[in-house]
Amino acid sequence: MLLVCRFRVSDPETFTERVKRALELLTAQPGCDKGTLARSTDEDDRWVLTVEFESVVAYRRAMSPFPVREHVIPLLSEALTDEPAMYEPTLTSTGGEVEEHTSLLAEDAFTVRLGEAAGPAKPR
């Protein structure tokens, strides 16, 4: 799973210190593979935080410890909300080889309304 949070930042020094602490906490959790903070080269107040998790379960568990809830959740709540934040990988590549991943979304995802789906019958 990939967490992508975009931010508009007015105080880069304070922001990067907060993100540094958040990344220390998150990447210390089992199943959290890596995190990256990047600054836009086009707009100086735009930043993006990406964090990779082994699975949805790893993401949820990583967000559970009290120090994470105390430091990370408030930071993430400041992210811009005009786009989704969680993504599941479909293709990954290392060393020139591409790996295809099976989606965990239900076959009828995005076609039913809240309360209508009983759960995935089979993966896509």
UniProtKB/TrEMBL annotation:
<keyword id="KW-0503">Monooxygenase</keyword>
<protein>
    <submittedName>
        <fullName>Antibiotic biosynthesis monooxygenase</fullName>
    </submittedName>
</protein>
<keyword id="KW-0560">Oxidoreductase</keyword>
<feature type="domain" description="ABM">
    <location>
        <begin position="13"/>
        <end position="61"/>
    </location>
</feature>
<dbReference type="Pfam" id="PF03992">
    <property type="entry name" value="ABM"/>
</dbReference>
<dbReference type="GO" id="GO:0004497">
    <property type="term" value="F:monooxygenase activity"/>
</dbReference>
<dbReference type="InterPro" id="IPR011008">
    <property type="entry name" value="Dimeric_a/b-barrel"/>
</dbReference>
<dbReference type="InterPro" id="IPR007138">
    <property type="entry name" value="ABM_dom"/>
</dbReference>
